[in-house]
Amino acid sequence: MHAFQPRASAFGLPRLTGLGSLMVLAQAAFAQESRTPQAPDAALPSVAVHSSLAQSPVEQLPASITLIDGERLRDRQWQVNLSEALPAAPGLLIQNRQNYAQDLQLSIRGHGARSTFGVRGVQIFVDGIPSTMPDGQGQTSNIDLASVERIEVLRGPYSALYGNASGGVISAYTERGEGRPSVESNFAAGSDGQKRLGLKARGESHGIGYALSASRFLTDGWRRHSSADKNLFNARLDTETAHGGQLTLVASHVDINAKDPGGLTPADWAADPRAVAQGPLDFNARKSTRQTQAGITYEQKLDAANSLRFMVYAGQRQITQYQSTPAAAQKPATSAGGVIDMGRDYGGLDARWAHATRLANQPLTLVAGLAANRVEEDRKGYNNFAGSQLGVMGDLRRDERNTLSNIDPYLQASWSFAPDWKAEAGLRWSHVRVKSRDQYLAPGNGDDSGSTRFHRLLPVVSLQYRLSEGSQLYASMGSGLETPTFNELSYRPAGRSGLNFDLQAATSTSAEIGWRQRFAGSGLRGEWTAALFQTDTRNEIVAAENIGGRTSYQNAGRTRRQGLELGSTAWFGSQLRLDAALTLLDAKLRQGFCDAKGVCVPAGKRLAGTARHQAWLALDWKPHESWKFGLDWRHVGSLAANDSNSVLTPSYGVFGASAGYTRRLGDWKLQAYARLDNLADKRYVGSVLVNEGNGRYFESAPGRQWMAGLNLSYQF
In the chain, pLDDT over 90 holds for what percent of residues? Predict the structure, then answer.
């Protein structure tokens, strides 16, 4: 295996620690977004957190959470990827692969870092509808940033209340239509043939609020063979029922066609970061995804003490993917081929009852509910060749009917037992079932049908103390569960047939101590947060073998993730705003393991896909109501590309600059904006393919990039 060590970081760990000290002393935590204040001494508004089971102000939540306003997400941005703005959330490592066939690389406190495609170990919700399937596999491509009202990033033990694969929770909420009707159009263009066209309508008519958004994004790609075409539609309707209830309908559709350039070996990346290995070119590696879903939420306040919430949803997802698996690797009878053709019908519900009462004459809130989700999947595999022709659908090699489901009852209690004290406790019984019916029988490939179940009781407890009106200290503990995804169960080591039902779920115990504070003074105001955390995991899921384009998995021993998160936001008068985030993470094996080939990884090695430190700074200056300028800097330490840590990416720090101009003419509003990213044209690795079997770990980040756009809106 090629040993590759990173160059010395231009901004090392000691300086990052110094940055953290500066943030604690002088800045405010990045916990929410509010508009730039006109009055410097005005108090920060209280913002309710929707991600908690019972909505509560952010300053009363005993957990690490970052709230990012939709306007902030869209301001001088492409409005295509979560990676554009979510680096502002401490603890979240989100990397744009520059590959729309594989989604973003996303992990929270090291959970989900092993994923080579999609999202694992982190729960994702869009308007309360899970974008994470019952087995823990998720995706972010259906999040429409153009119509997002806010995104909440929840971290730590509290996340366990969301069940399986809750190393963290990302919740996106579509803005509600209200007020006078308005229409808005947007066009942006930039480097490498990137173009985005968006249309949006929003308002309220005859008691119905509506928000409709449609967009198309095109790119030629920075690397060869990385072009993409993404079409997205999102809608939300709100109305009030005759009995005072609230009814919300959401629907979305996404259609993506993308080429897949794959990864590069460290040597190939060093020679030419825009290169593409021959395999993806020979087989024309590509992926098409289409998904349509809809959901209805009904909320009813029964009386002063009781309320109900009921959500039901359904959707369909179709994926066709041509991989660059060599033809020779598909000769064994147990091979599933090099083309994936998968259709999914999915749906579920979440029913919740909330009750407010008193215990010992102090406020007590109870929440009880049931979440149930089900996926029916038809999965077929084909050779990716026919005769001598490569990159076409050939003979059938796999045909199965899979069912993924979970049924999770949950309960939460919150008791303000003293004027400055609050205790919370939650319990969730997570029960996940995976069933497969093999419909492809051939000589050497028998019936591989089977099923397995995973279940665990997930308790969470927390205690919060209010130090002052704007300062809170909290501590929490919880137990977590992460089941293998169906893709991780699909293959057994050594090319054996059948599903890998020997693979167990990873279980964890987490603890966190946090401090949140708001401040306001003459000319300076803001807030800051700090959190210390530790998670101990048993049966960590790791790669057992990667050969012939197929990865099989096994359980390792114990692992530990521990670290520090700092976040801040501060306004200096009404013109300057400074945002900052710092994450220090030590994620490593506490016990060694040996893979299917007998290669042993000793204790003490860093978990693959994790970085030990990352930081983010952004400065916005608004010298005039029409003008806005910004500078931002992002630093990410070296990433471990494999379990043995023999390959590490170079650490990097990149700068960006932006400017925006706004002009109002009656009911018309014109916004012009521009961005430059990677100002120094730095060469760096944007993300990694963890434990890639051919050593092609590196996914290149682009050099200097530009974009410019116009936004025109009219309010009736």
Answer: 80
What is d(CA 449, CA 463) in angstroms, rounded to the nearest whole number? 47
Residues 282, 300: contact at Cβ < 8 Å?
no
Residues 6+ apart with CB under 8 A from 197: 185, 186, 187, 215, 216
Token pair belonging to 272 = 């030419």
Q: What pLDDT score does 444 carry? A: 87
User: Number of structural domains, the chain?
Assistant: 1
Q: Evaluate whether residue 269 is within a structural domain.
A: no
Distance CA 161, CA 628 (A): 40
Residue 406 placed within a domain? yes
Reported as a single tens digit per residue, the pLDDT across 477-519 is 999 999 999 989 988 887 777 889 899 999 999 999 999 999 8
- In Å, how far from its chain's centre is CA 154? 11
d(CA 322, CA 196) in angstroms, rounded, equals 26
Structure confidence at residue 48 (pLDDT): 67
**pTM score:** 0.91
Torsion sign, CA atoms 479, 413, 296, 237: negative
Strands (E), 127-167: 129-130, 137-138, 148-155
Q: What is the dihedral of CA 502, 487, 384, 280, to 10 degrees?
A: -120
Is residue 382 domain-resident? yes
CA 465/CA 467 separation, integer angstroms: 6
Q: How many helices (H) and strands (E) does the chain have?
A: 5, 41
- According to DSSP, the β-strands at 123-126 and 168-174 are parallel
Supply 38's token pair.
Answer: 């006109």
- Which domain CATH number covers 497? 2.40.170.20
- Is the CB of residue 490 less than 8 Å from the CB of residue 446? no
Of 286, 378, 377, 383, nearest to 336 by C-alpha is 383
pLDDT at 37: 36
**CA dist., res. 260 & res. 690, Å (int):** 16
User: What region does 91 belong to: left with phi over 0, alpha with psi -120 to 50, or beta?
Assistant: left
Q: Does an H or E element contain 282, and which?
A: helix 278-282
Torsion of CA 254, 146, 116, 647, to 10 degrees: 150
Tell me, what's the pLDDT at 13?
A: 41
- Residue 638 in contact with residue 649, Cβ under 8 Å? yes
Q: What integer pLDDT is reported at residue 21 of this predicted model?
A: 43
Rounded CA-CA distance 291/445 in Å is: 32
E strands, 360-392, in order: 362-382, 385-386, 389-390
pLDDT value of residue 100: 94
Which residues in the chain land under pLDDT 50?
1-42
Q: What is the pLDDT of residue 47?
A: 66
Question: Which structural domain range is residue 132 located in?
Answer: 13-263+287-715
Residues 572 and 578 sit within 8 Å (Cβ to Cβ)? yes
Q: Which two tokens stand for residue 108?
A: 């929270």
CB 84 within 8 A of CB 72: no
Say if residues 639 and 611 touch (Cβ distance below 8 Å): yes
| Residue 579 buriedness (CB in 10 A; 0-12 / 13-18 / 19+) | buried
Q: Quote the pLDDT of residue 52.
A: 67
Q: Looking at the domain assignment, is residue 552 inside a domain?
A: yes
CB 565 within 8 Å of CB 583: yes
* pLDDT score at 54: 65
- Cα of 69 vs its chain's centroid, Å: 16
